[in-house]
Amino acid sequence: MTSLVIVDDQGMVRAGFRSLLDSEPDLEVVGEASDGEQGVSVVRRLRPDVTLMDIRMPVLDGLAATRQIVEAGLPTKVLVLTTFDLDEYVFEALRAGASGFLLKDAPAEELAAAIRTVAAGDSLLAPGVTRRVIDAFVRRAAPATPGPDARLSLLTPREVEVLGLLARGLSNLDIAERLFVSEGTTKTHVSNVLAKLGLRDRVQAVIFAYENGVVVAGERTAADPSYG
After folding, report:
1. 20 with 108: CB under 8 angstroms?
2. How would you classify residue 21: left for phi > 0, otherwise alpha for psi between -120 and 50, otherwise beta?
3. What pLDDT does residue 119 have?
4. Nearest partner of 203 among 86, 87, 99, judged by Cα
5. Domain made up of 2-124: CATH architecture
6. Largest CA distance in the chain
7. Stretch 179-195: mean pLDDT, rounded?
8. Which Pfam families match (predicted)?
9. Distance of alpha carbon 39 from alpha carbon 26, whole angstroms
10. Domains in the chain: boundaries
11. Which member of 4, 24, 59, 110 lies 3.0 to 4.6 Å from 35 by CB, making a disulfide possible if both were Cys?
12. Contacts of 86 (CB under 8 A, 6+ apart)
């Protein structure tokens, strides 16, 4: 059973999500909060598997709340909920440690699937979402460093290739097919990339790849699922 906490300042939104999710046999809403500060407190107390986090809230916004949860090392995956698919705060929430984001008007089955995805330890960035969100993020953000991060030198050429494909939004299966290797081998490469770079998940790997020139914002190649 996957336990959930819903953090949103609108009571009707929380009630709607609770109704939808409680009907899923493997999901259980164990708590709610109406602002980020309360959300951090509830997450500390209940330690849910997944936290659904709104961005724009009073007292403490979802960005700051996500950062506090991640920095505290709380064992929950944060799934950011937003009204706009290019909300500027989403970029910073991903950098703060969120495991992905989803539009509030997503169908019930998509919400449930997203929760299961992040609960399993995967990040939620579909190919199209990866391209739009990260490209926009990179264009708005100032360069994080004057040159590529030294950690890149720790990667083998194949791991750099995997990082580039991952950054374009390809799944493990897509990467495996692209490189003519097994999905298990791809998972090993991805795990090695995250470990060597000291990153939490695929979301951070995507941002790292763009910030360090492994891929270029707006670049499209045959590796991109939308190519052609």
Report:
1. yes
2. alpha
3. 86
4. 99
5. 3-Layer(aba) Sandwich (3.40)
6. 51
7. 93
8. GerE (PF00196), Response_reg (PF00072)
9. 22
10. 2-124, 143-211
11. 59
12. 132, 133, 136
